[in-house]
Amino acid sequence: MLEDRTTAASSPTPWPAAYPKGYAVVDVETTGLARDDRIISAAVYRLDARGEVEDRWYTMVNPERDPGPVWIHGLTSEMLEGAPLFGDIAEEFASRLADRVLVAHNAVFDWQMIAREYARARSEAPVRQRLCTIALSKELGLPLPNHKLESLAAHFGVVQQRAHHALDDARVLAEAFRPSLRAAAADDLRLPLQECRALTEWADRPAPLIGQQPGGYGGYGPSSWRPSRKRPACPYPNPGRYEEGKPLKQGMRVAFSGDTSVDRELLEDRATEAGLHVSTSLSRLTSLLVTNDPDSATSKVVKARQYGTPVLDEAAFGQLLRDVEPVADRAASATGRGSGDR
């Protein structure tokens, strides 16, 4: 475990009063990309309000399972054998995150991995907001060829020394985040902050033993950390949009956006079991959008506003999910199978 303290001069740039007072730039390396994968190393660079480095911290973590793609992160079972378990470093990790905005590249991935580890440890990470540097680079209109960390680093002249090593990735991101933050402040830009919700309910598949990890990161989309899941076609026709004060109806198309307290896959499974059509995208045919952050600028929320799609939060959706109205004629509905907008 490594800890280091650094001090730097404060920037004279005029600063928006509404900006956060501190940041925790985070990178985690994991056994894979699925929700039941585990963290094997973590790094945090703590920054002050203007992006100056205060200190850094790094640790390896024993995942008690196969380490996954060693050829990517370089951490073997032998290296991780004597490392602390996540429960052993959870308190120290939390102290690095407390009262700060979590900053990461593709922040939803890092946050969800961290949230699941704390849920397993029967605890919560003290994080209320996150900032994704991909979203920030889009807000700034940076002329990047793609949204890889290496492209962001190259834009700001930051040299990567050990790609996919948590400490170096966090350093690179911290150095690229500082000028991004200053550019945003100079334009008085609203930062694309997202709410972080702790997991209260989740499920894990049995972990593969050492030597039994499937090869590669196959089965994942280029911009998503979630493995692709094929669902059976919904057997009911779409009855239209959800109407406030009325029950959900079988066949309604529901999309989800943002963090949920119940693991997203569990929530989607329950919706499917109730006879709803779970969509990964949002269209004019979507019956409702479930999100706990209706003021965010995610593509689904933006489209919901454009299309006038009804929006519900997770709690309201959970209540309605208990009593979904069945189709009037199940036999007739078999001929009206909806085409999937998956």
Describe this structure in words.
The radius of gyration is 22 Å and the shape is globular. β5 (101-104), α4 and β6 form a beta-alpha-beta unit. α5 packs parallel to α7 (166-186) and α6 packs across α7 (166-186). The protein is 30% helix and 16% strand. The strands form 2 sheets. Strands 1-4-3-2-5-6-7 form a 7-stranded mixed sheet, sandwiched between helices. A 4-stranded parallel sheet has the order 9-8-10-11, sandwiched between helices. With 342 residues, it is of the alpha/beta class. The two termini are 43 Å apart.
Brief description of this entry?
With 342 residues, this protein is of the alpha/beta class.
| Strand arrangement in the largest pleated sheet | 1-4-3-2-5-6-7
**Roughly how many Å apart are the termini?**
43 Å
Please tally the β strands and state the result: 11
Class by SSE composition: alpha/beta
Contiguous uncertain segments of 5+ residues: 212-225, 331-342
Rg calc: 22 Å
Order of helices and strands: EEEEHHHEHEHHHEEHEEHEHH
List the helices and strands and how they pair.
Blueprint (H helix, E strand, L loop, with lengths): L1 E4 L16 E9 L8 E10 L4 E8 L9 H4 L3 H4 L5 H12 L3 E4 L2 H14 L8 E4 H8 L8 H7 L10 H21 L6 E3 L57 E5 L6 H10 L3 E3 L8 E4 L7 H9 L3 E2 L1 H8 L8 H4 L9
Parallel strand pairs: 2-5, 5-6, 8-9, 8-10, 10-11
Antiparallel strand pairs: 1-4, 2-3, 3-4, 6-7
Helix pairs in contact: 5-7, 6-7
Quickly list its features.
342 residues; four-stranded parallel sheet; 16% strand; disordered C terminus
